[in-house]
Task: inverse folding
């Protein structure tokens, strides 16, 4: 149930998956986590991948960066294209060269992606060095990046544990930006944060996208966040993309019953029986 | 009857002393009342002290100052035995249903444990409790371990266990924050059904403004250990007075 | 729980090998009683024979079979190891659980006492007890039990501190159950698993201590133990290597097996483990 994209055909696709199928393989079973997923993100665009836990949205994100667990998962079908290049069969070494540019990623839990014994400045410098080899500009670039994410220059001297959750997410952003990405994949970047901090981070993301012309793929379960941040959206349910199109259109006239239920439930409004809307029948993810 | 105070927190304070760092005043002279059959939402961000206040109300954490009155009894002045008995009138529902159930006990054992004071007709009562929380056919679940159930089912079992104590107040600490939207509505509806049948009061501790608005009669907003605003849910969350509440409400992304 | 534990253990290769070795030891230690030819006390005229087809591991200065000695030695070592570990575990679990659960001054006091027992040189305490109470297996079991419980208690206390603040413990408290029932019914069963790994390590320590005491002649003469064999064999180290080599190897392999097995149990029971 896809609608014509609002984006003009002129802008180049940065990231594309074509009929992607990803399976998790264990000793005695194979579970397909993603089926027939075709996603495209163009330059400068803000796109959402929406779904509840277990829908397969994070698996797609990992595949897009070559971060699928080796041995226990595989791309069974389809292709992933980054900047027109087929990266589906890339080796870990080839991925190493791609990391951070043109696609970078930030995660839900920044603390586990930061080295606890290294100062923030050093960790940002590492990502700068990856793409700017001249050491002289390094310090200046770190300061510039901190400024970009609205952190004081003094934060460079801090260790991760000394920062709040919101500040850590900013650091992770600075590290990602150090690689000058054209596309940022943000996997539930504000889920662990308080609402007021979430609002700050979302505002920052919007500002950065506009200033740097960066595209964003936001992976989220929160329809409110998606509504405010993304021009287009893909809705995932049980490993499949069940709906895609312009966010406002999806939300005002959803085509798929699951999307309809999800939107009603997210509004947390009571119905005529004075009860909350729930997703009914086969589209409920609750198995009870 | 609806105006009779059930839980009264009177100038309750709690400071945590941690080795090597400055003492943290988690709750500062907070007063809050929950009336019989009322739903009160305690909203605030992480570190605001709302969970600490919930634990104090449940008697799991002794306050440094102030009084906790439940059903006319001053909890701080009771003997150990009386305290345990009075406290059973308040039951918790926790955020993480996995952590709230002993992983080594079956559903039958978990519920039987709640009937320890009067263990007659246990099997039938266990089944009755499971049916009350919408787990049917109940007999099918009796011998399951928590890890064999879905998240929604686990939350229901934990609610069933609370109901076994015939509580007059349920203190729910973020009962929905781990749950997907699709499960959220089911749990909230279950809580409303229970209230219709048993006239329990709820103290719902949550960071989710939209749920507080739709679920509660009254809302108390906590910030840095203090309640900065209390009032009818609609009034507090639509026309907030305190600057912090205004900021909080504005930060919530709203679906048009 | 038990079946998944066994399945995971089976995947741990060195742990499986060690476990099978221990099982084989126990079987041999029992079977040896049913073979009258293998009598560790039987004297013969074949004195100081090197290993041969007739005497697989050779004979000692009185013509006794080293093979019979090594096999009967299993009984002593495994018995001492098992009961010492059991004593230390029971003591450590109870003390550690009470310290961790009730906290406060009780906890502080218990942990100071535990430190006291941990710094006593085990060998000197053992020698003193043997000097006063005479030699015997019970004495060794008591010594190891007394000295090893703090290892168990520390692990138990740490686990209890973790488990007691889990939500299900609070939930049960709110049901009005007395604190003692909360500790025994909820906390201990969920805290005890990692202790098993420590207990297995104590088996090895106990076997080693028994061997050292016997080596120094601080055990009763009737007991055929690996340490005693080493003791009497060391006089002939240069002309009859087999008298020392085989009991020594037995001690080495057995202690190694229990340590590897203990490590494996620890790895498998650790929820944050690899698999």
Result:
């Amino acid at each position: 149930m896809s609608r014509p994209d609002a984006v003009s055909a002129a802008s180049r696709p940065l990231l594309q998956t074509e009929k992607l199928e990803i399976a998790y393989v264990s000793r005695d079973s194979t579970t397909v986590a993603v089926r027939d997923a075709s996603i495209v993100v163009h330059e400068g665009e803000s796109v959402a991948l929406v779904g509840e836990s277990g829908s397969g949205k994070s698996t797609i994100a990992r595949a897009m960066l070559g971060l699928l667990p080796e041995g226990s998962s595989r791309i069974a079908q389809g292709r992933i294209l980054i900047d027109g290049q087929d990266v589906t069969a890339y080796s870990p070494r080839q991925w190493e060269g791609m990391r951070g540019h043109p696609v970078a990623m930030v995660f839900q839990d920044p603390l586990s992606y930061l080295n606890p014994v290294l100062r923030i400045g050093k960790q940002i410098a590492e990502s700068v060095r990856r793409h700017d080899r001249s050491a002289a500009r390094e310090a200046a670039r770190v300061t510039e990046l901190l400024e970009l994410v609205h952190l004081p220059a003094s934060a460079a001297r801090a260790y991760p544990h000394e920062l709040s959750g919101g500040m850590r997410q900013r650091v992770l952003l600075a590290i990602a930006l150090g690689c000058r990405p054209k596309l940022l994949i943000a996997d539930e970047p504000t889920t662990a944060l308080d609402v007021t901090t979430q609002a700050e981070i979302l505002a920052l993301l919007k500002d950065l996208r506009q200033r740097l012309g960066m595209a964003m793929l936001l992976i989220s379960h929160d329809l409110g966040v998606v509504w405010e941040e993304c021009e287009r959206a893909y809705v995932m349910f049980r490993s499949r993309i069940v709906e895609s199109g312009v966010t406002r259109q999806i939300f005002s006239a959803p085509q798929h019953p699951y999307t309809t239920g999800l939107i009603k439930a997210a509004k947390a409004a009571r119905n005529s029986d004075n009860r909350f809307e729930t997703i009914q029948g086969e589209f409920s993810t609750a198995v009870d | 009857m609806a105006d009779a105070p059930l839980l009264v927190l009177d100038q309750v304070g709690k400071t945590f002393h941690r080795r090597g760092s400055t003492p943290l005043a988690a709750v500062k002279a907070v007063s809050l009342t929950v009336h019989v059959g009322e739903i009160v939402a305690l909203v605030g961000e992480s570190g605001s002290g709302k969970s600490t206040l919930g634990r104090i109300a449940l008697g799991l954490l002794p306050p440094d100052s102030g009084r906790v009155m439940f059903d006319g009894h001053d909890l701080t002045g009771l003997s150990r035995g009386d305290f345990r008995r009075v406290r059973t009138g308040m039951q918790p529902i926790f955020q993480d249903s996995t952590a709230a159930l002993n992983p080594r006990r079956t559903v039958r054992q978990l519920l039987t444990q709640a009937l320890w004071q009067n263990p007659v007709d246990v099997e039938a009562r266990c089944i009755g409790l499971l049916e009350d929380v919408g787990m049917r056919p109940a007999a099918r679940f009796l011998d399951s371990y928590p890890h064999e159930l879905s998240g929604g089912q686990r939350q229901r079992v934990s609610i069933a266990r609370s109901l076994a104590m015939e509580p007059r107040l349920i203190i729910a600490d973020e009962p929905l924050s781990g749950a997907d939207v699709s499960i959220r509505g089911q749990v909230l509806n279950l809580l409303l059904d229970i209230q219709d049948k048993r006239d329990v009061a709820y103290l719902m501790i949550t960071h989710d403004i939209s749920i507080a608005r739709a679920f509660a009669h009254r809302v108390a907003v906590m910030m840095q250990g203090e309640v900065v605003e209390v009032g009818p849910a609609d009034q507090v969350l639509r026309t907030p007075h305190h600057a912090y509440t205004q900021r909080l409400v504005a930060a919530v992304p709203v679906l048009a | 729980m038990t079946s998944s534990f066994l399945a995971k253990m089976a995947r741990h290769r060195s742990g499986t090998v060690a476990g099978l070795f221990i099982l084989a030891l126990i079987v041999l230690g029992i079977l040896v009683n049913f073979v009258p030819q293998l009598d560790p006390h039987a004297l013969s005229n074949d004195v100081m024979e090197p290993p041969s087809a007739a005497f697989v591991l050779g004979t000692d200065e009185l013509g006794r079979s080293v093979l019979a000695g090594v096999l009967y030695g299993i009984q002593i070592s495994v018995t001492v190891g098992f009961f010492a570990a059991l004593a230390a575990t029971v003591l450590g679990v109870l003390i550690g659980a009470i310290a961790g659960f009730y906290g406060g001054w009780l906890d502080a006091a218990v942990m100071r006492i535990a430190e006291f027992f941990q710094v006593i040189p085990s060998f000197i305490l053992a020698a003193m007890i043997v000097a006063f109470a005479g030699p015997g297996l019970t004495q060794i079991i008591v010594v190891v039990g007394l000295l090893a419980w703090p290892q168990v208690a520390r692990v138990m206390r740490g686990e209890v501190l973790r488990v007691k603040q889990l939500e299900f413990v609070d939930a049960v408290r709110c049901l009005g159950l007395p604190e003692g029932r909360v500790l025994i019914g909820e906390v201990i069963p969920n805290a005890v698993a990692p202790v098993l790994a420590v207990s297995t390590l104590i088996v090895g320590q106990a076997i080693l201590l028994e061997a050292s005491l016997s080596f120094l002649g601080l055990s009763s003469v009737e007991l055929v133990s690996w340490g005693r064999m080493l003791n009497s064999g060391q006089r002939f180290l240069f002309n009859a290597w087999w008298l020392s080599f085989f009991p020594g190897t037995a001690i080495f392999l057995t202690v190694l097996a229990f340590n590897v097995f203990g490590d494996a149990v620890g790895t498998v029971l650790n929820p944050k483990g690899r698999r």
